[in-house]
UniProtKB/TrEMBL annotation, chains A, B:
Keywords for this protein: Acyltransferase, Cytoplasm, Lipid biosynthesis, Lipid metabolism, Phospholipid biosynthesis, Phospholipid metabolism, Transferase
GO molecular function, one term: phosphate:acyl-[acyl carrier protein] acyltransferase activity
Entries under InterPro entries matching the protein: FA_synthesis (IPR003664), Phospholipid_synth_PlsX-like (IPR012281)
NCBIfam families on file: plsX
Metabolic or biological pathway, per its Swiss-Prot or TrEMBL entry: Lipid metabolism; phospholipid metabolism
Gene symbol of the encoding locus: plsX
Organism: Thiobacillus denitrificans
Subunit-structure text: Homodimer. Probably interacts with PlsY.
Protein name: Phosphate acyltransferase
Domain of life according to the entry: Bacteria
Length: 339, 339
């Protein structure tokens, strides 16, 4: 078994080292094939390790980085002005081969801009996409793009389909995952021009293309992969977060209405907790920046230790299952067919 | 108090007259200022009225129409080939002034195409939009467009904003409703070109423009009106339906896990039912085809009697509150400012 090294941007996210360092320590304890490089200001990392009674060593390396990218910093400024940021150095470690993957809970725009600049895209991929796992009635589905590309071409949607299918087949061990194209009607005549062209390209490809799917199909688990442009994907993701929050708030309010409903709530508590666990968004934390020459995983900024651990595991799973090689092979196959 | 006459496409929807006729009868009983014209095959309507022990009269008129538009019929075919359909005749009654509004649970595409052809758009409105009410943590919000226009210009989004604001101010009696533009980031720099231009137009308008909102803001109730193109709106609407269904299915499954959880479910049942009622989508049934020279309300195809009643009430509320005149006045104001 080969070892996997994940570089961690210790300073990213709303909670920074208080979340990222303990998450890394727990992942190391659980996965014997994992090494981590903690990237950030040396003194801060040392203090956090001390507080957790952990030491650096061959499996836990500390790499100093003097700067921090703020959560609201403009991507272009972060890219030009912060060459020694924890985010940048973590990505540099992937470029140099010292790390197999990097994980950051930092500013999405800055992470995407820096990763594209440092790592470049895979041959045949125009632009990277953000791929996220969403829960469904049947299990889960991979949806991309979640916001990296506001305007997409049909060719890019095809590339998203290929990348998404390869990621799912590699990590979930599904031989020929189904791919759906997000549209506003199942009939081929609906949708805008770009989506219609994308459907033709997907249909002509060697992918297991299901056809058009609608918004509800994401959560019904109609296909393993759902492809859309980044504008639609991001709005859908955020709307789902908002709706889930509204439903949870309403449910809580109903159980707190009076002493009778409170007693009912206490009796139902184990069931409500089991329900909450099943749909816990922390279990789906870690979106992949797909299409780069390197594995880069973006954690939600508000991730806690449990959620950030999941992002580290997502990154190491992708390395373990050779996702990048599978995508490269498929894109080459596509290009050979086209040539 | 003036009387309001609503023409009802009796044959539209998955259930047709079994739902539309009893819903109309109940609305008549509840609203003394309401008259209805039931449009469809005379014998079918007569049989349904008889089964409900109801009679036609000055407040309940039956208008024969010999054809029916199928739920999956191509809009262009319905428009050209079915000039005596229940849908078409109901819209014709609005055109001739015999009815103030029409309600149909039929095929959305056919309804929009026929309504545009027969009624035409209001002066200054390029294309009608579908406006739907969504529940929020604070109450509810109006979202448009929900699927009539897959590709929109910035000017159209401005028109949607004006129409939505006028609808909300008229029906909900909110003097200056806030309008949000659906985007993928709150910062003005994000989003695609069309959305950026629309933000500038909305900011320069006399509307109470809040700025960009994200998907989660719909359900947080950040603004009274949310404007987006029909592709994004439709995907968001359908995804929300799918997610709500998934959450309900998961909650039910957890309560059915074993006899202990079943007992907890029985004890919690009144609370769970109250929760279900609060988020009942039937209470939001009835999307308005906004921007036409006439009030046209589209009910969900699967609507039951309770939901269809709500669509009839939505239509009569809009007539009662002079929504069309308010929109026309505001658009004229905009054109005077621009001239």
């Amino acid at each position: 078994m080969r070892n996997i090294t994940v570089a961690i941007d210790v300073m990213g996210g709303d909670h920074g080292p208080h979340v990222t360092v303990p998450a890394a320590i727990r992942c190391l304890a659980r996965h014997p094939d994992l090494n981590v490089i903690l990237v950030g200001p040396q003194d801060i990392i040392a203090a956090e390790l001390k507080a957790r009674r952990a030491n650096s060593g061959p499996r836990l390396i500390v790499r100093h980085a003097s700067q921090v990218v703020a959560m609201d910093e403009a991507p272009a400024l972060a890219l030009r002005g912060k060459k020694d940021s924890s985010m940048r150095v973590a990505i540099d470690l992937v470029k140099s081969g010292e790390a197999d993957a990097c994980v950051s809970a930092g500013n999405t725009g800055a992470l995407m801009a820096t990763a594209r600049f440092v790592l470049k895209t895979l041959p045949g991929i125009d632009r990277p996409a953000i791929a996220a796992v969403m829960p469904t009635i049947k299990g889960h589905a991979l949806v991309l793009d979640m916001g990296a590309n506001v305007d997409c071409t049909a060719e890019q949607l095809l590339q998203f389909g290929i990348m998404g299918a390869m990621l799912v087949s590699a990590v979930e061990h599904i031989p020929n995952p189904s791919v759906g194209l997000l549209n506003i009607g199942e009939e081929a005549i609906k949708g805008n021009e770009m989506v219609k062209q994308a459907a033709e390209l997907l249909r002509a490809s060697h992918l297991n293309f299901y056809g058009n799917v609608e918004g509800n199909d994401i959560f019904l688990g109609t296909t393993d992969v759902v492809v859309c442009d980044g504008f639609v994907g991001n709005v859908t993701l955020k709307a789902s977060e908002g709706l889930a929050k509204m439903i949870a708030t309403t449910l809580r309010a109903e159980f707190k209405r009076n002493w009778l409903t409170r007693i009912a709530g206490l009796i139902a508590l184990p069931v409500l907790n089991a329900f909450k666990r099943r749909l816990d968004p922390r279990r789906y934390n870690g979106a992949t920046l797909l299409g780069l020459k390197g594995v880069v995983v973006k954690s939600h900024g508000s991730a806690d230790r449990f959620a950030f651990e999941h992002a580290i595991e997502t990154a190491s799973d992708e390395v373990r299952n050779n996702v990048l090689k599978r995508i490269t092979d498929q894109i080459q196959l596509l290009q050979r067919v086209a040539a």
